């Protein structure tokens, strides 16, 4: 089954991030734009900063527990400490299939009440909702100590047509 086509043109912003702390700050700023029912897909090479951004999201949402990569547990729920939505952090790296393989996680059940962040979710979770935020993090690959990341944040679907993603670079 194909993902439903988003009825609106995507909203997009691009950022240059120079350090892990700046990536966490992008996550904290992004948290201010999120609400229950939002799906955030993170794409990028190993070590690009997906979990670092999610750590900042967790801080911004005021959730309980250390946000770490859930690679081996696949999904981790962080309840809110401030009467906000819980953060469901998923790492789909080890999941080869699409939404079928992810059904055991019950993301469709969690989505209305939670903010769901999926690392490595491209091609796996788009069918959950046509309204989603796609974050692509590019970094230099190979033998480099370059901390610079080029981040593209794209809002897909009606939910994001009125959200100012430019606030992420403020």
Written account of the structure:
With about 170 residues, the protein is of the alpha/beta class. It is built from four helices and seven strands. The protein has helices at about 20-35, 50-60, 100, 105-110; strands at about 10-15, 40-45, 75-80, 85-90, 115-120, 130-140, 150-155. It has a seven-stranded mixed β-sheet, with helices on one face. A hairpin with an 8-residue loop joins β3 (about 75-80) and β4 (about 85-90). It is globular and about 40 Å long. The model is unreliable at about 1-5 (pLDDT under 50).
Could you name the ranges where pLDDT drops below 50 across 5 or more consecutive residues? 1-7
Give the CA-CA distance, first to last residue: 39 Å
- Class inferred from helices and paired strands: alpha/beta
Q: C-alpha Rg, in Å? A: 15 Å
| Number of H- or I-type helical stretches | 4
Largest sheet: 7 strands, mixed
How are the strands of the biggest sheet laid out side by side? 1-7-6-2-5-4-3
């Amino acid at each position: 089954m194909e993902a439903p086509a988003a009825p609106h043109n995507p909203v997009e912003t691009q950022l240059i991030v120079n350090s892990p702390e700046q990536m966490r700050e992008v996550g904290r700023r992004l948290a201010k734009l999120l609400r229950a029912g939002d799906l955030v897909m993170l794409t990028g090479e190993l070590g690009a900063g997906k979990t670092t951004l999610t750590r900042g999201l967790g801080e911004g949402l005021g959730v309980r527990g250390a946000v770490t990569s859930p690679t081996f547990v696949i999904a981790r729920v962080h309840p809110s400490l401030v009467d906000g939505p819980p953060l469901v952090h998923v790492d789909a790296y080890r999941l080869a299939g699409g939404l079928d393989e992810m059904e055991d996680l019950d993301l469709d059940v969690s989505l209305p009440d939670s903010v769901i962040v999926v690392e490595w979710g491209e091609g796996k979770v788009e069918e959950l909702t046509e309204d989603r935020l796609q974050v692509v993090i590019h970094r230099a690959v190979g033998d480099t100590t370059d901390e610079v990341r080029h981040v593209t944040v794209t809002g897909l679907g009606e939910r994001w047509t009125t959200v100012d993603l430019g606030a992420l670079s403020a």
